[in-house]
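Case study 2.
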Amino acid sequence: MNFLLTNDDGFGAEGLLALERAFAPLGKIYVIAPDQHLSGCSHQVTTDRPLELVEHRENQYSLTGTPADCVRVALKHLQLPIDWVISGINHGGNLGVDVFMSGTVAAVREGVMHGVPGISCSHFRNGVVPYHWENAEKVTHRIGKELIEKTIDRHCFWNINLPDAEHLTPETEYQLAPLEPEPLPVSYEIKSGQIHYVWGQYVNRPRTAQSDVGVCFGGKVSLSLVNLQTKNVSMSR
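Prediction:
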């Protein structure tokens, strides 16, 4: 299989390198990633300026664009023969409704929109505990190998969230879980006449035990099947 790897933490990020090691044994690797850190850029695409594609080595590129741009350039400009878009491993969780703000997840969503299945993968971090990229690589390889052999609806993709390093081992099991619908609490404060976002405690966010947030915070790998399709809603008079 041919895999397109990208992220929103930027070309050369530790998580992207771990992702490459995880999928290299499974097929041919192409890497196109943003040339800078773009966490939280969601599904932004660039149409108002030219993009520069820099080849660092064979099949390894950085792009002066967003994660979604990277997928578009790979599929529609370079016309690479991609079987799967794999995005991550993100430095931090992409849980619940955060998937709608995540550049990591948007890259996979862009691929699905063009008929290419995908997997987004993130590594939750609890406070100052450092990431464990070696275990993240091993778990992502194991689960990724299983997922690419499954057939899913063409409008769906997989979203993986690895637990914090204290709970992550090469044998950590995954649990299927729906996205948590409750968002991260949002608050602001005024400083010097300007509005500043107040960073809350991520681990205190609302959740149910069965949701992806609850599963990941509980020490397992959360695995969610995300559907791009929306059901028709009938309105009664």
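The chain has one domain: 2-227.
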